[in-house]
Amino acid sequence: MNEPVVDKVVIITGASSGLGEETARQLVKSGAKVALGARRKDRLDMLVAELGPENASAFQVDVTDRAGVEDFVADARAKWGKVDAMLHNAGVMPLSPLAMKRTDEWDLCIDVNLKGVLYGIGAVLPIMQEQGFGQNLFVSSVAGHVVNPIGAVYCATKFGVRAIAESLRQEVKGYGPLRTTILSPGAVDTELPASVKAEGVHEAVSGIYQSIAIPPSSFAQAVIFALSQPEEVDINEILFRPTKEA
Ligand SMILES: NC(=O)c1ccc[n+]([C@@H]2O[C@H](COP(=O)([O-])OP(=O)(O)OC[C@H]3O[C@@H](n4cnc5c(N)ncnc54)[C@H](OP(=O)(O)O)[C@@H]3O)[C@@H](O)[C@H]2O)c1
Description:
By secondary structure, the protein is α/β, with parallel strands linked by helices. The protein has seven helices and seven strands, in the order βαβαβαβαβαβααβ.
């Protein structure tokens, strides 16, 4: 048990795999309650069965659907009575050079990684303002700090997440102790490389992940660190990579 997170209610988007799934596990181990959202409801239901319905709830949501995100957050609050934190984690990484003109992927990446995050803020912020407390945790990336030639759109979304989070941090000063954390991981072993579909790029990215990626527990521990701070301490940025990453 990690005393400071006991009974905290944490909403997690993208909880059906990878970083979101592992963070849900570690949070429940630490005594928190989690509201899990993603499109693959079967995966969420399995996780709820593992964590126990007294600790976790599942809601099928596509974060590109604004009304759906509102319903997810409202459902979580109705079930658990409050929202201590929201981990805006759902994301895709369809890397490719711009010259491949994979315009559907550009749209998807912006819709999920940027608009999805904004819809999450729109849904949860009124609750946090009314409560007078809350913590928003955002998942940027090393790709939100450093640009690479297959990452134009993905990097743009992850730089954008940092801009949104920093603006939010400054905006909420009048509403009590609302806190804002940006987590920027390097390569972590999840299903994310599967969202790279471009020929040649998929193989290259998967190869890099296979050789250097670190376990998702690294991310979950960073989330718990940020959530464990006393109310007057606002952890704003955590950037970490595999030791082997360039
Ligand atoms: N793994 C890394 O190396 C790494 C590094 C830096 C940043 N990140 C970021 O970490 C976050 C989590 O990714 P991950 O690595 O854990 O990859 P992952 O295993 O592929 O998980 C992505 C999650 O996002 C959800 N998702 C995708 N599109 C969605 C949509 N339209 N609506 C709702 N949920 C959606 C997926 O659930 P469903 O498919 O069931 O909807 C899944 O739960 C992403 O924002 C990613 O950019 C990852």
